Amino acid sequence: MYLRPTKIKRKGRVETYWTLVRSVRRGAKVVQETVAQLGKLDDVGRREASSLARSFLGSRADQPALYEDRRELGRAEIDLDKVRVEDTREFGGVWLGWTLWRALGLDDFCARRLPRGREEVSWADMAAILVIARLCEPSSELAIAERWYRRTALEDILGVSADKVHHTRLYQSLDCLLEYKRELEVHIKERLGGLFALDYDLLLYDVTSTYFAGEAAENTQAQRGHSRDQRPGSKQVCIGLVVTREGYPLGYELFDGNRVDVTTVEDVVEEMEGRYGKAGRVWVMDRGMTSEDNLAWLRAGGRKYLVGTPRTEMKKWQRELVEQGGWNEVRSGLEVKLCPGPDGDETFILCRSADRKQKEQAMHERFAKRIREKLVSLERRLATQRKAERTQVERQIGRLLGQNSRAAGLFEIRVVEDEKHKSGLRLAWKERTEWSEWATLTEGTYVLRSNVRDWSAEELWRTYIQLTQAEAAFRIHKSELGLRPIWHQKEERVQAHILVCFLAFCLWKTLQGWQARAGLGHSPRTLLDELGRIQAVDVVLPVVGGPELRLRCVGRPDKAQAALLQRLGLDLPKRLKPPPQASQLVVEKA
Asked: Model's pTM, two decimal places?
């Protein structure tokens, strides 16, 4: 990553604007991607960045400037031939994680809920270690204790010695943290709402699953069910997550691994209303949550909803799909049509996407071609091989259609007796033109359903599309924060593991919102990795005729890193809690 200057001449004056660029390999080529437009990097920009940092950190944003030592230090004569550097540690990433932890007020929350007792290390500090590790480099508690913590400067930031961080203490801190799950969610909702001026009139709800490494025999929630991770043979748990329209988390619930999505709706809605009150919110859910019982329950409680519908509902709207009038173009390649429900209480929205049509058409053709080829091959075997059993052939056809279910309805297949074939059987199959015509009509089309009556078709569609924020939250949990697989076997430890992942996601979204406001894009991992290259080191200074002094210093960021910090309004400390005797000494210039 590097800075690229662009000079623009305005009113006889040349102004320099800076762009943060990174090199990315795509196949055989290396191309440059713009990470952020940094503007002029002048004094005005620095003041704006400082103001932004104060909005997130309050008075905590007022830190000593980069590499500016404001203390009155003494002097000592140093033997320059013996100066050395020791104990290099990763600093920038964990320091940023700790900054986010404080920005959400989680340090104060944990200090209040987990007050220090007789334990050597406070549970509040251990909770911070767990969550920051999950954000920066997801790994097991054992890996945190044995490798990760010792490589980082969290020991200097938190004041917790590395020999005090072991896997037993980390496991115990999981148990302590779980007790405050609900209070944590309420606290984070209030804090995120204040930081980003969130509106909770629209809530997105979706369910995912995550699987276990092992049998999890002691966990009653670990069951086999529909796996979103393509691991049908593994036990799993289901997670229902509620987020705002911008993707900021409101809370989550944990369900048995064999729980059907549609049965979770009432539990989650009542839980959220129990915490935050029953207001005029609109619940947005995909078609997996849709049932007549659920929708009737939502309506009976005066709740608003916008949901997807199963494809079987499309048959009811065949006439409207055929009619050319009434369609409104929302954007290029996408049209919507508003259709009143039969009882007048609901509205149905027909949506037709050209891109989705092309995708589904290619999918149908691919699966249909596969079925045709297999049927021809099976016909050839039945004609030339020895006598076959009808049930065995029918099972083969069933497996074939099951593996290519997207085009299975196109084919009508029968197994009939035929003495002309050596097997005594032959296939009689044909393609159903009515299925093909219906597929052509409905490819790229889906139906939404809502009892919100004062929104346009475009508003309803744009609102439903925001459900991708919940899907994105699941992807971040799984790919960036190491939610899967779950190695814990006990039920409480599993619940605590998911809570730590949820808290790390809250830090992730805070950083994402912060960097978006600072004009740094929407990729927290890029920012964490780039600042993670900043190191902390111990500089050992042998005093002539005296003891060795050890100064714990932070490495100087390069120009790109300094620009990132400036846009966030953050200043790195110059030194990290130096030993008492070093605080009164400084190296004399040669």
From this structure: 0.85
